[in-house]
Amino acid sequence: MATLSRRLQAASTRRPNILLITTDQQFADAMSCVMGREYINTPNIDSLAASGTLFTKAYCANPLCVPNRTSIFTGRYPHEHGKQINSTKAINADEFPNIGMVLRKAGYATGYFGKWHLPYPFKRSTARQSGYDQTFDALDYKIAAPTIEFVKKNKDRPFFVVFSLMNPHNICQYGRSQPLPDGDIGEAPAARECPPAPANLEKARNQSDALESVWQARLRAKYKNTEKRMFAPLELWGPDDWRKYRWAYYRMVELADKEIGKVLLTLRREGLEKNTVVIFTSDHGDGIGAHRWSQKNMFYDETARIPFIISHKAATKIGRSDYLVNNGLDIMPTICDYAGAKVPPGCKGVSLRGIAEGKGIPEKREYVACSTHFVQDLRADGEPIDLQGRMIRTADYKYYVFDQGEQPEMLIDMKNDPGEMENLAGNPDYEEVLSEHRKMFAEYKKESGDSFLS
What are the extents of the domains in the chain? Predict the structure, then answer.
C-alpha cells in the first residue's frame, strides 16, 4: 500500500501518460453507450464514455485506413501528406513527424502495439525511424499482453502507448465469406433474431450520379489477375442479409471491446488511471448496409463519422459534446497539449482538451472537411473509376462534391434527414444553403492548399 501511495503522489506532479486506442472500421454509434444493449454490448468502451467526454460529431479526414491513419498521426490533411489511397510508401518524416516522434523527443517512453498501416518503417526499424521505443504487430487477441508489459515497465515515467486493434475490420472478410483472422464470432442466427436492417437501406433520392457510378463500379472490383470479387455482393443482398451482416459487425466490435478491457484493467490495477489520458477512436466507419453499402470510402455518416472519447479520470467533464471534430487533424494537437509538447508546424487542427475538461471551446469551427479517392472499383471497360471527392460537414448540413458526373454535388439536411435519404442540391428552396456551402468549400481549399477541382 505504501508503494502504491508513493506512486500515486508522484503521478500527480508529472505529465500524464497517454493511451491512444484505435479500432478499425468502427461506425460512431456502434457502442452500447450510444445504441443501448439490445444488439451490442461494449462495457469497456462504455466505461470510457462514463468517465469522459463523448464527441458526437467526430469525422475522419478520409474514410480509408492509410489516409486517415496518416492524418491521425501527423495532424495533416491527406492532400498534404499525399496519402489518399492505401499506399504505405514512406513519406518524409522531417516534414511529417508522427506523434510517437514528437512525444519521444519530449521525453515520453513510446510504444505501438497492433495494426500499423502507416507510411513509416515498422518491422526491423529503429525507434528514431518509427517514433516508437517498442513496436509489436499481431492479431488482435495477441497484442494486449505486450501492451500491458510495456505499461508496467514504464509506469514510473510518462508514457505514450498506441493500442491499435484490427476489428471490426474483419467484416470485410465476412462479406466475402472468408475466415475471420482476429477471432471467431460464431454462426449468425436467423435474420429475425438479428438487428433490424437499416432504416436508410435504400439509395438517396436525387443522389449524385457519381455515387451510382461508384456503386456499379464496386460490383466489378476483382482481385488482380483473378475473377474473385473484392467486395461483398451488394446487388444480391436483401434486408435479411444486411441484418446478419450487422449482427456479425457488432460481434466484432465486442471482440475489440474485450481486448480494450484488458488494458484498462491494467491501468486500474497499477494505480495509473488518474494520471493517464485515454483517447478512443477509429480510423473510419463501415457502411453496415446504409444505402446498400458495405466497407468504407463513402461520405455517409456510417463510413465517415467515427467514435471519439477523451477520458481522464477526475479531470474530464463527463458528458457529450457536439463540437465538430476531425480526428485526422485534432488528435495531434490534443495529445501535444496534454504532453506539453510543441505541435509540429503545418498542423491545422485544434486541441480538444479544453472541451474535455469543461474549460470551453478552443475556437468556433464552421466546418470539418473530408476527402476520398476511389481506385479499386472498376468502370465497365475494366479500368479503375479513379473518382475523387470532398465533403464539408457543418453543424446542420453535409455538402459533397465529386470530380465526375453530370450532377456532382450533394447537399444533405443532417438535422432533419440524418439517414441522408434526399439530395437537396438542385432544390430551389435550398439555393442559399448550397451557395453558402460552396463558399465554405472554396474557403477550405484556400486555407488548406487543396488543389481539388482547381
Answer: 2-171+240-361
